[in-house]
Amino acid sequence: MVLLGIGAAAGLAFASARLVWRPAGAAGMPPGAVAMVNGEPIARADFERAVEGVASDRRAGLAAGDRERVLQRLVDEELLLQRAMALELPRRDPRIRGQLVSTVIDTALTGDGDRDPSDETLRRFYDEHREYFARPGRVRVVHRGVPGTGAASRERAAALADALRAGGIPEPSPDVVTVPDTLLPMSKLEQYLGPSLLRTVLGLPVGGVTQPIALQGAYHVIRLAEREQEEIPPYDEVRALVRTEFVRRRGEDALRAYLDELRAGAEIVTLEIDE
Q: Residue 154: which CATH number?
């Protein structure tokens, strides 16, 4: 516990006058509690766990008075917690608010039985979502450009297109950035060409060459030299990825169901938000 560590570091002294011991079952003390702080019980189970934590940190075990000091610090921790709630820190402090939200989410998902799925469950999930685990295809293009957008530049680009159709590989212009002559995934090729030019290239057959295309102050011609088809790897190669995705999706579904349940029991009023 945080306060236990803070107390040990700061050398908090135990003040016996602050602690009133009562026999088990005494009036005002609920069963299973070792203390009451402003009406809030400190459970014996929490107390014993804290004692065990202190004992495990010491080679010689517990010293005289350690159990009393642990209880005293738990009382201090409860007092600070109550003060934090009175100050509405969970609402006012974004960091605390985020930590609480994350803790509630973790608690809500702890009971999800599919977080350690069987191999049979994972295989079924893989079969139902094979396209998700596909390795995207790659293409190789020969790309040449001519700076300028005038008639002379277009004629030079048309000549480059003829050369590419004939199987030649003209020297690239130093004034136009060209795509590397290597197999690239679609996402990388789009970074070089942009979405519209990529769609044009992907519409070509292997060996096909575009007409000169004016783009960003130059004419471009591209030959689709090679195409690798999308590949779906076998289950055994991607089992770890399948498990990760299965747990992620089941977690999202469980959280959505939990939030729907909370919303169903809540009164929620919102303003209409303009789009």
A: 3.10.50.40
